[in-house]
Structures are given as structure tokens and as C-alpha cells.
Amino acid sequence: MLKEVKKDAETRMAKAVKVLQEDLQTVRSGRATPTLIERLSVDYYGVPTPLQGLATIVAPEPHLLMVKPFDPSSIKLIEKAILKSDVGLTPNNDGKVIRLNVPPLTEERRHQLIKIVHKRLEEARVAVRNIRRDAVHDLRDMEKESMITEDDLKWGTDDVQELTDKYIDKINEIGKAKEAEIMEI
Predict the structure, then answer these.
(1) What are the residue ranges spanned by the domains of the chain?
(2) Rounded CA gap, 59 and 89, in Å?
(3) What CATH number has the domain spanning 2-25+106-183?
(4) N or C: which end of the chain has fewer CB within 10 A?
(5) What is the per-residue pLDDT across 54-102, written as a single tens digit (0 to 9) for each?
(6) Architecture of domain 34-101
(7) d(CA 170, CA 157)
């Protein structure tokens, strides 16, 4: 039973870290990457659709993204979605493809992006701590119902805390790497 609680907590913590990594890919760094815009929601005939489902997105140069819609009639919808988003890029439409020039980041914008990264890191840490809280609560319930001993509760709690520390460290490492990427000129 202890193993099940620990395994469940570890699975959930790993998911929280994975979500953080995917989320941070959408935070702009100095170079153009398709992940900046691929999850943008485009209102395609009344249905919110991720941009990656409507177009091919490539980065032919370090400061340029090209979006080639599968359906040429959707180019205006895609352009509108990019303009409405908080990506801060202005689309250039030639009728077949949309080009997005990704300008180098200013010092001020870099600091704003780092604040966004810190906020997302803290959200991930809170998620991991909530998972720890749930696991410890489950262990206490098991002890109350005499399914485990008091010693098992102590060991289980220590194991869950170790796991929490491990995932918080991973989150911090991911944050440092993203900060370095943003500050890179």
C-alpha cells in the first residue's frame, strides 16, 4: 500500500514537471521556434483549433517563422489568432504563407519573460506540494484505519518528502535553464 501511494505521487509529480516543460516551450527566447505558436488557438469555422492542426510551422532562419496553412482559406483566421495572442509578433501574409519576424529581445522584455517563467515555476512547485499533501493525507487515513503502522506512516511520509524534494529540484533546474536561454544574446 505504501508503494502504491508513493508510485501514484511520483506519477502525478512527473506529469506536473512535463506540463511545466511544455508550458515553458511557449515562452519566447532569443530565437524562433515553432513551439512559440503551435498551440495558439485558431477559431476555425467556430471550433477552437490548435494552429499545429491547421498549418505547417517551420523556422527556416533563427529569427523567422513560416506558417503554411493546409487550407489556404484559413490564412486570415490564423493571422487574426496570431495578432490576438500575447506572443508579440506581427504576421506578414503573402496569400500563401505567413512570415513572422522574431526580433531580438530587449533587456526589459527579457526581464518580463523571466518574471513569467518564475510565476510558472512557482505554479509547478505548488502543484508538486499539493500532490505531497494528498499522499500524506492518504497515508494518515490508512494509519487511522489500521491498514499501516505508525512507523509505516513515518517512513511513507519521509519517502514522499524525498520525492517532493527531487521534483522541486528538477523544477528549479528547468527554471535555471530557461532563464539562461532567455538571457542568451
Answers:
(1) 2-25+106-183, 34-101
(2) 14
(3) 1.10.132.20
(4) C
(5) 999 998 888 889 999 998 888 988 988 888 887 778 889 888 899 988 8
(6) 2-Layer Sandwich (3.30)
(7) 20
